[in-house]
C-alpha cells in the first residue's frame, strides 16, 4: 500500500506514526508555529484594513466607520461589529451561500475576544452621549483556509484597528444635524494587541498551530488569547479538560506568539508614523 492510500484510509494512524517521533507530516515539531505575516492598509476605500497570514491561511479585514445612535444600555460608547466570512475559494469544503455556522461562531468569538481584552476604549467612539456614536463594521474574509482561521482573523482585526482614522464630526444638539469634516482625521487609539493561538489534540498529543487537515482529525481544539502578557480569553471544544501542566505549556507558547506579533505591529506602526 502506497503512502497516499494509507493516509487516506488511516489518517489518524498516519499522523500518530509521525507524532510519536515528535514531528508532523509537514516537518514541523509539535510546538512549532508557522510563519506569521501582517500587512497594513491594504484596502484604500476602507477606513481601516489589514491582511494576516499564518502559514497558508490568509484573512483580509476591512473596517468601515458609520454614524449611528448608541445602544440604550451604553449611551456613552460606540461599538464594534465583526463579521467573518469563509470564502468558497478558500477551501473545497465551503460553498457559496449564507455564512456557515463556523463563520458565525468566529464572528461572536471575535467580539468576545476584543471585549474581554478591552482592546479599544469604546468611549472614544462617542460623538454626542445618547445621540450619536461611531460604529465600526469589521468585515473579515478568509481567502485561504489551511487551519487556524480564527487566529489569523484576530491578527487581521487588531492590525486593521491600528490603521483606522475617523473624520471630525460636529453635532448640532438643537437640530440634530451633523457636519462631517473629512479633511480632519484622528487615529483610533488601540490600547493592546490581543493575539490568539490554537492547539489541537491528536492521538493524545497536543500540537500548536494546526493545519486544516490536523483540525479535522482533532478530538480537542483549544484557543488561548494573550493580551499584554496576560491570559484574556480561552475556549475549548471537545475532549476532556486539559490538566494544569499541559494548559500552562500551551499558555507559554501562546505568550511567545503574542510577543512576536506585538513587536511586528509596533514596528509597522513606527514605519507608518515616521
Can you walk through the features of this model?
There is one protein chain. It contains six helices and twelve strands. With 274 residues, the protein is of the alpha+beta class. The strands form three sheets. Strands 1, 2, 3, 4, 5 and 6 form a six-stranded mixed sheet that branches. A four-stranded antiparallel sheet has the order 10-9-11-12. A two-stranded antiparallel sheet has the order 7-8. Strand 5 and strand 6 form a beta hairpin. The longest helix has 30 residues, at 244-273. The radius of gyration is 21 Å and the shape is elongated. The mean pLDDT is 90.
Strand content: 25-35%
What is the CA-atom radius of gyration, in angstroms? 21 Å
- Counted beta strands: 12
Number of helices: 6
Shape, principal axes of CA atoms: elongated
- Average pLDDT, rounded to a whole number, is 90
List the uncertain runs: none
Structural class: alpha+beta
Head-to-tail CA distance between termini: 60 Å
The level of helicity is 25-40%
Helix and strand pattern: HHEEEEHEEHEEEEHEEH
Task: Give a quick account of the main beta sheet: strands, pairing sense, barrel closure.
Answer: 6 strands, mixed
In short:
Helix content is 30%, strand content 34%.
Defining traits:
four-stranded antiparallel sheet, 30% helix, single chain, 274 residues, six-stranded mixed sheet, alpha+beta
Any chance you could write out the topology, listing elements then pairs?
Layout: H1 3-9, H2 11-19, E1 36-40, E2 48-54, E3 57-68, E4 79-86, H3 101-117, E5 126-128, E6 132-144, H4 149-161, E7 165-171, E8 178-187, E9 195-202, E10 205-208, H5 212-217, E11 220-227, E12 230-237, H6 244-273
Helix pairs in contact: 1-2
